[in-house]
Design goal:
- The protein has 199 residues and is of the alpha/beta class.
- It is globular, with a radius of gyration of 16 Å.
């Protein structure tokens, strides 16, 4: 099973993905936790290029293709092998992030992003996606409590467009389940487990 966690910066998706990883391990399940960008050795170098605020001058097209390169390597070296071995694969961000940030935030066409996502993944889609939704103002407040990365330094308007695109995706795709990220982490996790226990 392939499960992804999505959401704007500061939504709590990483926390929830790691809680699920620990719970599944406790239950004796074979499970892999990974993330994008940065789920491979090459990906960690790409992640640094993408998120370092010293690289704020990256052209949007360069940024887009770096994400695609990271994903292609990640699918080939981590996701497909994990799934083929019968592991439950948990991924912190995946194709929906590219759609939300690059189509929503950066303004690339949805058709271009869909084509690039399909090519870089070879058509691999999650079985289920948990989208943690928070108002952009609150997400940014949470995300910038520590040193903000390049995306966290984007304008409020950028983050509002990202959130809107996420919600648009969720309305169109039944695999995406929206969770209120303003709840306690315990309440959110209970909802995730309840949903997974139904599968």
């Amino acid at each position: 099973m392939f499960i992804t966690f999505e959401g704007p910066d500061g939504s709590g998706k990483t926390t929830q993905s790691k809680l699920l990883y620990e719970e599944l391990r406790r239950r004796g399940k074979g499970v892999v936790w990974t993330r994008e960008p940065g789920g491979t050795d090459l990906g960690r170098s790409i992640r640094q290029l993408l998120l370092d605020d010293q690289n704020a001058s990256l052209a949007p097209e360069t940024e887009l293709f770096l994400f695609a390169a990271d994903r292609a390597q990640h699918v080939a070296k981590v996701l497909r092998p994990g799934l083929a071995a019968g592991q439950i694969v948990l991924c912190d961000r995946y194709v929906d992030s590219t759609t939300a940030y690059q189509a929503g935030g950066r303004g690339f066409s949805a058709e271009l992003i869909a084509s690039l996502n399909a090519y870089s993944t070879g058509g691999l889609l999650p079985d289920i996606t948990f989208l943690l939704d928070v108002p952009s103002e609150i997400g940014l407040q949470r995300a910038t409590r520590q040193k903000a990365d390049k995306f966290e330094q984007e304008s409020l308007a950028f983050h509002q467009k990202v959130r809107a695109k996420y919600l648009e995706l969720a309305a169109a795709q039944t695999r995406i389940h929206v969770l209120d990220g303003l709840q306690t982490k315990e309440a959110i996790f209970q909802q995730i487990m309840a949903r997974l226990d139904m599968l």
